Amino acid sequence: MKIHSPITSPDPDDQERGEDLLKDLIVISSYDQISALDAPVFDPSATVKLVPYKEELAVGLLLGGDERMALGIFAEALRQVMQCFSRFEPMNQTPIHRSYPSPRSLFPATAQIVFVRDGVDHPFTYEPEHHALCGGFETLTEGEYDLRLDIVGDLQRISPLYGDLGPTLCALETGHLLEQLRDTLGALGHTVRSELSGSDWFGPHSQNGNSLESIFPIASLILEDGRFNWSPEESGRLAKLRVPVPQLNKADRGRVATAIGRLVCPPAPAVSLKPGRSAGLGATLSASEAQGFQRSSGHFPFGIFGAPTGSEERDALIDQCHQAFQDLCSEWPDHQISAHLLMPQPGDQVRKINLRDKQSYAFPEANQQKLADAFGTSFNIDLNTIPAILLFSARFADFVNAKSSWPYIQTLGAAGTVAQRICVNASSLGFFARPFKGVMAKKIENGFAMDGQVFYSVILGKRRAWQPYYSFEQI
User: Fold this and answer.
1) pLDDT tens digit string along 256-277?
2) CATH number of the domain at 287-474, out of 3.40.109.10, 3.30.2350.10, 3.40.50.720, 3.20.20.210?
């Protein structure tokens, strides 16, 4: 997923995809229409503003304007955001090291709508059976409330699957989702402030309460240009939302379509890849199939990479990554962040480039073999077919025994931001990214890194010479 980058040269595929999604809008003129969402009607003459209908456009829910809109619709859209970005479908009878990551399996999280006034939070969650918000409506009084969206990572559900990697994965994904939603809302013209925090929301998992298992990441988006005007007389379900609505002229529509197209992706194409390591080896994708895989990158179809690149492209990639990393270090001066590029070279050599100073080092032969084994054994990927591996790491030992866990969570959020922004910059050179979080990074860690670090690794490939290996979804 590409995030955190101004849209300077829109990808035609992204814009086309976003334009298709923008066609599927409905107009909510009354609360009665909530029950008729399966038969949307587009009425340009209606007085109310547009509300997204398709699930993929749920992130555009704040397109609602000055007119009345149903809180149930708002809550449903927020639930669909979580479905779109945080599908949690663990595969049965699958070894843990292959159950994550997957095209459709990220991590469990809870979405909350929080009304805030006078420093008091009033959280609400969505109840799908009755299409309504659940929470303490009786605690609300008539008047204006600030609006906040909380994405709460469910560490209790992820820890049994991933053990000691659970806190890392949960925090990384929560930080990613926060960045994605913030940038998309920003592209739609809204002023949004974001925060990352940690909490013992579900209570500590250890006697001293300081274990990493007690960390519970929360990503918050504060809408600074919108307020809810709550009126109990409005059947307890309707409210006025005052949010500026972007004027979608031709130029703006293309900008918004591109922003949404970059963020959401259609399902992967029906390309036959049999289970097992040997599936698809040596097969050739047609141009349309390759394009389909590229478009489905938001669902992380792993194991599709391009051929090695030339020296000029490698130098340009290093420069791009170095600049992106320098920018991030200036934004996060208090966090111990490091990033390296591992670049396989002709002759079975691997160079390690420190993105802080662009110094290049020879990767030790023994560690190089471990790295090759990590890809070959687990993913059946020839290391020589990968142009570059971005490896981010952050020290967290200082935060393990901290009284508050928020610095640890914030550092992990920075981890995802570093990797994603570097990938965005690299994309201008024609590269695309395939994230390997947690397990893959752990295997790379075993090659050369020390204990006490968390990792996030990304494969940078080229949009040519496609060769399928297999998708985790079919394992």
Assistant:
1) 444 444 433 333 222 222 222 2
2) 3.40.109.10
